[in-house]
């Protein structure tokens, strides 16, 4: 099924479960110009489904960098590991914010690989987060 075939009821439940924040950096929908997209945690290209348990929110940039990746190389250890699953894993276990609140730092192999693969510290994301920090909107408190 295409993303458009996911029912509006499922979309609402995913948004509610995600607290209207994207799964990889926890930033709120209210600070993003575009609508957060429904992300297939396990991409359909790898057998993922449109089942609600396989769906979460992501911004367009993260979603496009993720593509069909399910694993990535941990830049510190050099081994290939599975990407972060926002449905099953706790964000704070795998990531933390830099002291200035603009960069996501991976704590674990999974976190580091996800930061690299999804380019979570892309120059545009860092610039935007800097403005959010100045406005007192960022980083998320939980």
Describe the structure.
- The chain is an alpha+beta fold.
- The protein has helices spanning 8-17, 60-66, 91-94, 109-117, 123-135; strands spanning 37-40, 55-58, 71-73, 80-82, 95-97, 104-106.
- It has one domain.
- The chain has five helices and six strands, in the order H-E-E-H-E-E-H-E-E-H-H.
- A two-stranded antiparallel ribbon has the order 1-2.
- The chain starts with 7 loop residues before the first helix and ends in a 7-residue tail after the last helix.
- The model has no long low-confidence stretch (mean pLDDT 94).
List keywords for this structure.
142 residues; two-stranded antiparallel sheet; 30% helix
Share of residues in helices:
25-40%
Provide mean pLDDT, rounded: 94
- Count all strands and give the number: 6
C-alpha termini separation: 34 Å
SSE string: HEEHEEHEEHH
Low-confidence stretches: none
Mind sketching the topology for me?
Layout lengths: L7 H10 L19 E4 L14 E4 L1 H7 L4 E3 L6 E3 L8 H4 E3 L6 E3 L2 H9 L5 H13 L7
Antiparallel strand pairs: 1-2, 3-4, 5-6
């Amino acid at each position: 099924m295409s993303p458009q075939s996911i029912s509006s009821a499922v979309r609402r439940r995913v948004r509610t479960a995600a607290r209207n924040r994207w799964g990889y950096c926890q930033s709120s929908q209210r600070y993003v110009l575009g609508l957060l997209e429904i992300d297939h945690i396990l991409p359909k290209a790898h057998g993922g489904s449109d089942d609600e348990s396989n769906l979460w929110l992501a911004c367009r940039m993260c979603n496009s960098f993720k593509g069909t990746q399910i694993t990535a190389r941990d830049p510190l250890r050099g081994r290939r590991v599975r990407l972060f699953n926002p449905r099953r894993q706790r964000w704070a276990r795998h990531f933390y914010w830099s002291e200035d609140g603009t960069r996501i730092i991976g704590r674990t192999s999974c976190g580091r690989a996800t930061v690299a693969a999804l380019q979570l510290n892309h120059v545009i994301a860092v610039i935007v987060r800097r403005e959010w920090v100045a406005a007192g909107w960022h980083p998320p408190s939980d």
